[in-house]
């Protein structure tokens, strides 16, 4: 169309061009609308795995801390500082260790303000800890993680080397109880700072 003042053609889009552009942008918007829920689900899944890794890593860290301290004694402590009790499947079912928290030269059991015996075990999908109890016996077990939230599939402690500074390999595998197909495993190689037998 000619402009009456300048005598040149006026620029712009024709109706078919506008309709084509609107149709293409509608297709792009539909594709984005379908991808958005998939991206959101993947983001939530990744965040869930990161949270699971954090929970398992924090739990493993507390076990590592006790393993490093096992065997410390400010005097002449009696007994074995660290025991690994195996179940019928040859896997360690209970880790028990002692260290002299109050520096009185003895590893004391029973009700103490600062317990000196620590035991960890895997029982029915839950990792449990007992403080102050005699080795893996006793009835003061507490769950480290909420079984309704996280299930522990595997807890292993294996002695790699012995001697003055023994090394232990600790593995912990778990999953969200509501989503057992999404598992995560954390491993650590821990060097003891004291001779623990």
From TrEMBL:
Signal peptide interval: none
Bilayer topology annotation: Single-pass membrane protein
Chief location category: membrane
Keywords from the UniProt entry: Membrane, Methylation, Protein transport, Transmembrane, Transmembrane helix, Transport
Subcellular locations according to the entry: Membrane
A Gene Ontology cellular-component term: membrane
InterPro entries (alphabetical): N_methyl_site, Prepilin_Pept-dep_B_prd, T2SS_protein_J
Biological process terms in GO annotation: protein secretion by the type II secretion system
Protein name as catalogued: Prepilin peptidase dependent protein B
Top-level taxonomy: Bacteria, Pseudomonadati, Pseudomonadota, Gammaproteobacteria, Enterobacterales
Gene: ppdB
């Amino acid at each position: 169309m000619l402009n009456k003042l300048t005598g040149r053609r006026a620029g712009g889009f024709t109706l078919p061009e506008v309709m084509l552009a609107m149709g293409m942008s509608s297709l792009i918007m539909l594709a984005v609308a379908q991808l958005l829920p998939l991206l959101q689900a993947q983001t939530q899944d990744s965040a869930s795995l990161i949270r699971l890794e954090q929970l398992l890593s924090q739990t493993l860290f507390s076990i590592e801390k006790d393993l490093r301290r096992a065997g410390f004694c400010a005097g002449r402590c009696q007994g074995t500082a660290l025991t690994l009790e195996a179940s019928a499947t040859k896997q360690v079912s209970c880790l028990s260790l002692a260290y002299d928290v109050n520096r009185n030269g003895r590893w004391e059991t029973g009700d103490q303000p600062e317990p000196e015996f620590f035991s960890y075990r895997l029982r029915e999908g839950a990792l449990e800890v007992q403080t102050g109890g005699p080795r893996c016996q006793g009835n003061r077990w507490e769950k480290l993680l909420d079984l309704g939230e996280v299930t522990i599939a595997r807890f292993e402690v294996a002695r790699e080397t012995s001697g003055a500074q023994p090394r232990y390999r600790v593995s912990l595998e778990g999953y969200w109880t509501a989503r057992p197909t999404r598992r995560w495993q954390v491993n650590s190689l821990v060097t003891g700072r004291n001779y623990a037998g």
